[in-house]
């Protein structure tokens, strides 16, 4: 029996491969709690102020999308990439360079509907080339080469003035206006962000259960056996980097629209590591994990400053809280918050089963 045949996603002769993959992309929504969360997200503008809508929830969704690209590579491909925020930042810079901004000596002045596809295409190409380098290594070396790409891009943007405007960055980047709507207005931008996050989430769910995703997981588990079966492990890995780069690029476009500016600080090494923390804290094996981790990270980053200051501590130490939380979650669960939740559910189910057995 081949590796793909032994997986839990065994082919069903009664349905086409595409239809099977699509149906299996909805397992999370068999849980009523998932529908409740989805409903809350849809009606969020009715119950949240502009600050919470953008600074908490929209920012969570943007960081979740970027971390989702890392989760796809690590969870399904076994490749931990620290350049996903770099790819997102590259897309953001390209939006600013090709689009309209206050830096008229740098920006080319293209309309957003031309600048955005160009930025996504270049970001995908950038991530694919970086992935082509990374797949030649394994383990810690993959982490180091992707970190090196991120660090090199950070220093390049910081020192290049002709294209990236050096450490000052590019300011007042124009955002979309069409159908008479300012799509950077709080409610409109929230729904754009929610829509992109939902599309990315279901795309990852679908791809992970499609033939390509199953082959990628087979390469992750045993690349030699997959090669013996006629698959090209490196080609699958590079394609995975391309797919993840496109998702990260979408997050980068949303990020530059959110802040209306981009600078080297947006692609710093520390920020790259933050994305890894977000993905690991939420859970690296399911697409919902990065969004959970992003929410925890954003809440700590936003409110830990005030808490620390009230206790007379330096507000910049909020990263200490994030680090302690990261260590605690990883110590108790190798799959982040999702792992803790699953463990709690199994414990409750077993307790209820034992209680039922005693009463029976």
Automatic annotation (TrEMBL):
GO CC terms in record: plasma membrane
A Pfam family this chain is assigned to: BPD_transp_2
Keywords on record: Cell membrane, Membrane, Transmembrane, Transmembrane helix
InterPro entries: ABC_transp_permease (IPR001851), LivM-like (IPR043428)
Entry's transmembrane regions: 33-54, 60-78, 85-106, 112-133, 140-157, 187-204, 238-259, 265-284, 291-312, 318-341
Localisation: Cell membrane
Protein name: High-affinity branched-chain amino acid transport system permease protein LivH
Organism expressing this protein natively: Bradyrhizobium ivorense
Taxonomic lineage: Bacteria, Pseudomonadati, Pseudomonadota, Alphaproteobacteria, Hyphomicrobiales
């Amino acid at each position: 029996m081949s590796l793909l045949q032994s997986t839990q996603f065994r082919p069903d002769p009664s349905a086409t491969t595409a239809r099977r993959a699509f149906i299996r992309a909805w397992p999370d929504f068999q849980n009523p709690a998932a529908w409740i969360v989805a409903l809350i997200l849809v009606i969020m503008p009715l119950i949240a102020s502009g600050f919470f809508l953008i600074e908490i929830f929209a920012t969570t969704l943007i960081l979740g999308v970027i971390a989702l690209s890392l989760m796809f590579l690590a969870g399904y491909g076994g490749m931990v990439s620290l350049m996903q925020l770099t790819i997102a930042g590259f897309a953001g810079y390209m939006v600013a360079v090709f689009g309209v901004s206050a830096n008229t000596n740098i920006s080319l002045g293209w309309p957003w509907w031309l600048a955005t596809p160009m930025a996504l295409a270049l970001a995908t190409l950038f991530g694919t080339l970086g992935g082509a380098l990374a797949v030649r290594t394994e383990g810690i070396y993959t982490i180091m080469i992707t970190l090196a790409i991120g660090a090199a891009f950070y220093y390049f943007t910081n020192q290049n003035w002709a294209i990236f405007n050096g450490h000052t960055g590019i300011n007042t980047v124009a955002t979309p206006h069409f159908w008479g709507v300012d799509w950077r207005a709080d409610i409109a931008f929230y729904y754009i962000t929610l829509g992109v996050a939902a599309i990315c989430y279901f795309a990852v769910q679908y791809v992970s259960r499609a033939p390509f995703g199953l082959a990628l997981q087979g390469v992750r588990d045993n690349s030699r056996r997959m090669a013996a079966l006629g698959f090209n492990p490196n080609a699958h890995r590079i394609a995975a980097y391309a797919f993840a780069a496109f998702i990260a690029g979408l997050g980068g476009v949303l990020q530059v629209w959110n802040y209306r500016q981009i600078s080297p600080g947006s692609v710093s090494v520390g920020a790259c590591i933050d994305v890894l923390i977000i993905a690991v804290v939420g859970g690296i094996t399911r697409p919902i994990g990065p969004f959970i981790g992003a929410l925890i990270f954003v809440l700590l980053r936003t409110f830990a400053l005030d808490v620390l200051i009230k206790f007379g501590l330096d507000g910049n130490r909020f990263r200490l809280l994030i680090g302690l939380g990261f260590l605690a979650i990883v110590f108790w669960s190798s799959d982040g918050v999702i792992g803790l939740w699953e463990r709690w559910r199994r414990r409750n189910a077993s307790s209820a089963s034992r209680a039922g057995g005693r009463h029976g």
